[in-house]
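pipeline: protein-struct stage 2 | run 1193 | glucan endo-1,3-beta-D-glucosidase
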Amino acid sequence: MAVLLLFFMLPLSISASGESSLISPEKASGTVGGGVILTFEDKYKNLSLFGFLGIINNKFIEPGCQLSESLFILLFLNHMSLKKYIHFFGCHVSYLICGTHDAFIGVNIGSDISDMPGPTEIVALLKAQSIQHVRLYDADQALLLALANTGIRVTVSVPNDQLLGIGQSNATAANWVTRNVIAHVPATNITAICVGSEVLTTLPNAAPILVSAINFIHSALVAANLDRQIKVSSPHSSSIILDSFPPSQAFFNRTWNPVMVPMFKFLQSTGSCLMLNVYPYYDYQQSNGVIPLDYALFRPLPPNKEAVDSNTLLHYTNVFDAVVDAAYFAMSDLNFTNIPIMVTESGWPSKGDSSEPDATVDNANTYNSNLIRHVLNNTGTPKHPGIAVSTFIYELYNEDLRSGPVSEKNWGLFYANGEPVYTLHLTGST
Ligand SMILES: *[C@@H]1O[C@H](CO)[C@@H](O)[C@H](O)[C@H]1NC(C)=O
Ligand SMILES: *[C@@H]1O[C@H](CO)[C@@H](O)[C@H](O)[C@H]1NC(C)=O
Ligand SMILES: *[C@@H]1O[C@H](CO)[C@@H](O)[C@H](O)[C@H]1NC(C)=O
Ligand SMILES: *[C@@H]1O[C@H](CO)[C@@H](O)[C@H](O)[C@H]1NC(C)=O
Ligand SMILES: *[C@@H]1O[C@H](CO)[C@@H](O)[C@H](O)[C@H]1NC(C)=O
Ligand SMILES: *[C@@H]1O[C@H](CO)[C@@H](O)[C@H](O)[C@H]1NC(C)=O
């Protein structure tokens, strides 16, 4: 039995029409009020009541409010007759949990660039391209100031080199939040904080303090009454997921369970997302020909080439969905079933060296265009159709100072001078 607690303001009036008995979100309107406690003894019944609550939630309940376990299970029922309800619920669930109604596309702004454009130029480019969501790898003061009053949603990051200090000291964490967040909101719309970047795989020494760092940053937001509007999480490399195909057999590298389990408890209790970096380019490159290029690029496949998960019979038409579903299954393996996923990095390089023949402008354009279409369509994944998977493209600019193969320097949509590397249509992103 689960209890859903709703507070709202009188008077209540909801009008609805439509061919089904379920109130459709477009057709409903009204003002609501009062306070009510509803007890659900059977999660499979009273669907129309759930629909009704969904509308109220959609419009009136603050982002960050917790959903009951059984309501969430209901959302994920994979039953044909429930598909359309699931889609509707999916939207409002991700609205509640990740602070957005529909999936969005954002862009990462890396700064390993010899001729780094100034904050005003960067913001001018974002505006010209209608880019509404960005992620920074730090909390650059000048850029945060330039982003003020633009409407652009900003995710800031605690860089890995500041993580140890923050994870060991509540006061250091509170100072970080004061300087880099409190000083800028609400003029700059900071919506999330990434604590570190791929810490388990790039800075394993800091793994033991990662969850403390996350908790300390969160405490500072709570103290400033900003925890509802600013979510805290930590982006992980998808390489911590083992046996990722078929997705239903995936699990997280168990070495990291002592970090992952408390982290998932935190994400669950704060209504935050698992942040995941998803690179079909590397999966394709490392598969020695097992993964077809078309499957990595979201190109249509003949039915006999589609990957089928023999345990779930789900069909996979692209690597991106298979990796995201592997992460959902790996979370279920640890008994976490209600944490949404946000993809903090995904992209394709437009140029490579002789050992990287598939890093081409055509492939980069195909991957990123198809990715944008896929995400903005709210398609979700085969395991969770209609559940938003918001994604940040890696990345805005080519970063010429990055070391490694030629491809490392060529993930950008733009050159540092603002000229496009290729022409993508980001308009329509929200
Ligand atoms: C909800 O389901 C219960 C049990 O099936 C039923 O008795 C009750 O009338 C239903 N309530 C509504 C509002 O449909
Ligand atoms: C900030 O972003 C959130 C999440 O997208 C949005 O709900 C809110 O309206 C934005 N605030 C401003 C002042 O633009
Ligand atoms: C950390 O600091 C916050 C205020 O910034 C406080 O609310 C919280 O209790 C502190 N936590 C610990 C473990 O000291
Ligand atoms: C799991 O993670 C540990 C620690 O990083 C690593 O040594 C090990 O190789 C990983 N296991 C697999 C199968 O990748
Ligand atoms: C998950 O739950 C099942 C059933 O309650 C239990 O047997 C299993 O040990 C749990 N797994 C973990 C990792 O907690
Ligand atoms: C968009 O979503 C619908 C289902 O909601 C699906 O049938 C269609 O294939 C999707 N289109 C793309 C381009 O993903």
